[in-house]
Specification:
With 98 residues, the chain is an all-beta fold. Helix content is 0%, strand content 46%. It has a single domain, classed as Rieske Iron-sulfur Protein. The mean pLDDT is 97. The structure holds FE2/S2 (inorganic) cluster.
Amino acid sequence: MWVKVLDSAPKEGTMVKVTADDKNLFVTMNNGTLYAAENRCPHEDIELTLGCLKGNRVKCSLHGYSFDLVTGDSSEEDVDNMLTYPVKQENNEIYIEV
Ligand code: FES
Protein backbone atom coordinates (compact mmCIF):
# COMPACT_ATOMS: atom_id res chain seq x y z
CA MET A 1 0.00 0.00 0.00
CA TRP A 2 1.24 3.46 -0.91
CA VAL A 3 1.25 5.92 2.01
CA LYS A 4 1.61 9.69 1.66
CA VAL A 5 4.49 10.84 3.86
CA LEU A 6 5.36 14.38 2.72
CA ASP A 7 3.67 17.31 0.96
CA SER A 8 6.80 17.96 -1.10
CA ALA A 9 10.15 16.40 -1.89
CA PRO A 10 13.09 16.84 0.51
CA LYS A 11 15.78 19.31 -0.53
CA GLU A 12 18.68 17.82 -2.44
CA GLY A 13 21.11 16.06 -0.10
CA THR A 14 18.86 16.09 2.96
CA MET A 15 17.28 13.16 4.82
CA VAL A 16 13.81 13.71 6.26
CA LYS A 17 12.31 11.47 8.92
CA VAL A 18 8.83 10.16 8.13
CA THR A 19 6.42 7.58 9.50
CA ALA A 20 4.44 5.14 7.39
CA ASP A 21 2.48 2.17 8.69
CA ASP A 22 4.11 2.72 12.12
CA LYS A 23 7.58 2.35 10.59
CA ASN A 24 10.33 4.89 11.25
CA LEU A 25 11.62 5.71 7.76
CA PHE A 26 13.45 8.46 5.94
CA VAL A 27 13.16 10.01 2.50
CA THR A 28 16.08 11.63 0.74
CA MET A 29 16.78 13.36 -2.56
CA ASN A 30 20.17 12.48 -3.97
CA ASN A 31 21.26 13.77 -7.38
CA GLY A 32 17.63 14.43 -8.28
CA THR A 33 16.37 10.96 -7.36
CA LEU A 34 14.15 10.06 -4.42
CA TYR A 35 15.02 7.21 -2.06
CA ALA A 36 13.32 5.81 1.04
CA ALA A 37 14.66 3.44 3.67
CA GLU A 38 14.24 2.34 7.25
CA ASN A 39 15.60 5.01 9.59
CA ARG A 40 17.53 2.55 11.70
CA CYS A 41 21.09 1.37 11.28
CA PRO A 42 21.21 -2.43 10.84
CA HIS A 43 24.36 -2.50 12.99
CA GLU A 44 22.99 -0.98 16.19
CA ASP A 45 19.76 0.81 16.97
CA ILE A 46 20.53 4.38 15.89
CA GLU A 47 18.75 6.60 13.37
CA LEU A 48 20.51 6.84 10.02
CA THR A 49 19.24 10.43 9.65
CA LEU A 50 21.92 11.33 12.23
CA GLY A 51 24.46 10.36 9.57
CA CYS A 52 25.07 11.83 6.14
CA LEU A 53 25.00 11.04 2.45
CA LYS A 54 28.27 10.08 0.72
CA GLY A 55 27.84 9.54 -3.00
CA ASN A 56 24.98 7.08 -3.40
CA ARG A 57 25.31 5.79 0.17
CA VAL A 58 24.08 6.80 3.60
CA LYS A 59 26.83 6.77 6.20
CA CYS A 60 25.95 5.98 9.81
CA SER A 61 27.13 8.53 12.37
CA LEU A 62 28.12 5.97 15.01
CA HIS A 63 30.71 3.67 13.41
CA GLY A 64 30.80 5.03 9.86
CA TYR A 65 29.44 1.97 8.06
CA SER A 66 27.52 2.85 4.93
CA PHE A 67 24.55 1.51 3.00
CA ASP A 68 23.62 1.78 -0.67
CA LEU A 69 20.53 3.95 -1.21
CA VAL A 70 19.29 1.74 -4.07
CA THR A 71 20.02 -1.78 -2.87
CA GLY A 72 20.60 -1.22 0.86
CA ASP A 73 23.90 -3.11 0.55
CA SER A 74 26.03 -2.83 3.68
CA SER A 75 29.69 -1.84 3.54
CA GLU A 76 30.40 -4.58 6.10
CA GLU A 77 30.05 -8.30 5.39
CA ASP A 78 28.83 -9.06 8.91
CA VAL A 79 26.23 -6.26 9.05
CA ASP A 80 22.76 -6.67 7.54
CA ASN A 81 21.67 -4.54 4.61
CA MET A 82 19.52 -1.45 5.13
CA LEU A 83 15.83 -1.97 4.31
CA THR A 84 14.80 0.18 1.34
CA TYR A 85 11.29 1.02 0.17
CA PRO A 86 9.75 2.10 -3.14
CA VAL A 87 9.10 5.85 -3.17
CA LYS A 88 7.32 8.08 -5.69
CA GLN A 89 6.26 11.68 -6.21
CA GLU A 90 2.76 12.58 -7.41
CA ASN A 91 1.56 16.20 -7.67
CA ASN A 92 4.51 17.19 -5.48
CA GLU A 93 3.43 14.78 -2.71
CA ILE A 94 5.73 11.96 -1.67
CA TYR A 95 4.48 8.39 -1.22
CA ILE A 96 6.21 5.28 0.14
CA GLU A 97 5.04 1.72 -0.51
CA VAL A 98 4.97 -0.23 2.75
S1 FES B 1 25.48 1.76 14.64
FE1 FES B 1 25.54 2.31 12.55
S2 FES B 1 27.53 1.66 11.93
FE2 FES B 1 27.40 1.03 13.99
